[in-house]
Amino acid sequence: NQAEKAVHQKKEQSKTKCRKARRRHINLVAEFNRRQRKNIWLETHIWHAKRFHMVKKWGYCLGNSPTEKCYRACYRAMTKHCLLQDLSYYCCLELTGKENELLKQLARICSIDTGLTFEEACCLSGRFEGSVSLYRADRYPEDMLGTVTFIWKPRDGSENRQLWLWVHPALKQDILRELKAIFQCSEPEAVYIPEPVAASIQEENQVDVAVSLGKKRKKEDKDGEKAVPVKKIIGDGTREPFQSYSWISQATGIVISDRSMEILRYRLIGPLSHSVLTETLKAASLQTV
């Protein structure tokens, strides 16, 4: 019995891949996607995971506190250089439609008594970002929803405008529900459900060649079939993978789109922030057709 048990354990251990095989790109992508099924990673997750204590909040995996004593370095960067923060976990809601109709309905969920509103001239032009406190429709000063930041897309000559609302993930569902109510937006009849993107043909050929040489096995699922690694996670921490992400109003033509995890957001703090941006980003030349 002991001899049979030893042989059985030896066979099970032989199926475990070595670290070199686990660290191959095709295996890493599949492993990272598997670990993101419950909590979505930001674009900077790998960098933060090596240096921060990670916490799982609001459907995301976020860096909470550094593992090293870097508070002095962060303070020095904020006061003399530049410090970058990843705020991509904030949800972006896009409103598209006629400017007059947007302002008319948005005035119902905010008040000039609390400060700036969506109609402020400096913000309406698209030059500056604004902050506003939202309430339930026609319920001010009761039933506050929360504070959001917003920015208008600059005018391009047409009467249609685009407005981006940056909402904390804990407030997203309540604010989205209120926006759909005041604009009378309903879900589209046909919802596009994208299929997981399979591995490229070149990668599949490489896997087949490696298997034939006996150097690499393709990952198998519980049924023993070959599992194709997923390249992209669909959805985000505040939306189910196959939930609709766009709503339209048949009466006014206003469209509400959920752009969470599609538009990244970074915050730069420090006197050299502008210099870092000018050195990093290069302005594109304008081409007229």
Automatic annotation (TrEMBL):
The lineage of its organism: Eukaryota, Metazoa, Chordata, Craniata, Vertebrata. It comes from the Eukaryota. GO terms for cellular component: nucleolar ribonuclease P complex; ribonuclease MRP complex. Pfam families: POP1_N (PF06978). Residues 4-97 form the Pop1 N-terminal domain. InterPro entries: Pop1, Pop1_N. GO terms for biological process: tRNA 5'-leader removal. This is POP1 protein.
